[in-house]
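Board notes, transcribed. Complex of a protein with magnesium ion.
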Amino acid sequence: MRIARYLAHGQISYGIIDGDNVKQLSASPFEPHEVIDHVHPLTDVKLLAPCVPGKILAIGLNYSSHLHDRPGPPVPMVFYKTPTSVIGPGDTIIRPKGTNKLDAEAELVVIMKDSCRNVSKEDAMQHVLGYTCGNDVSARDWQEEDRNWWRAKSSDTFSPAGPWIETDLDPHNIRVTGRINGQEVQSESTKYLIFDIPTLVSFCSEYVTLEAGDMIYTGTPGTPGEMKDGDICEIEIEGIGVLSNPVKLEA
Ligand code: MG
């Protein structure tokens, strides 16, 4: 099942994707809901980021192809991204004037279904609603210069997510691809994740309560591509779809 969040006639709703249509839900997928008798053609709605996270965790250095000559981390290397950095499909990634290298990081994003704390790897997947495509936009110079990554990873528009949440997906061997202006720059299977999804959910929940709608960006493979003014960046994940965002230099 594909669950989208969308704007239609000035109203934001959640709905189920059904072919070229979206069928409205009576409430968010994180609370009791049913499909109601209200259908829009997808061409008549604006898809939004597929949920509104209370927090976003992101994992660095989680594919060996991204490590190059660096050693792998002994435990997941987790950092935060801000909810205010989230944008949806088709929204514009703003390249700040002050950075001289802005990269796209193609990532599988986990969407949490409900609250959990100290969950085991065995039980972790029961708390996952589904998956979407994400771009962990990264200002490389700020990432290197700053003591933490508050602006390098969380400036406004730095967390594109979408186009919807796919709930029926085995996430452990699907291809994650990043393209800039149609040219492939990253492509790898999630089977090469250093820490898999149950491990990430379990590890994070040892320290923080994971809540419904929280996002976990699971890390990027290979060598990310740079995004410049006027580029179109696409993140495609097998079994989910394509997240596409234009890039614009800050005015
Ligand atoms: Mg990343």
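Residues 56-249 form a domain with the Fumarylacetoacetate hydrolase; domain 2 fold (CATH 3.90.850.10). DSSP finds five helices and 20 strands in the chain.
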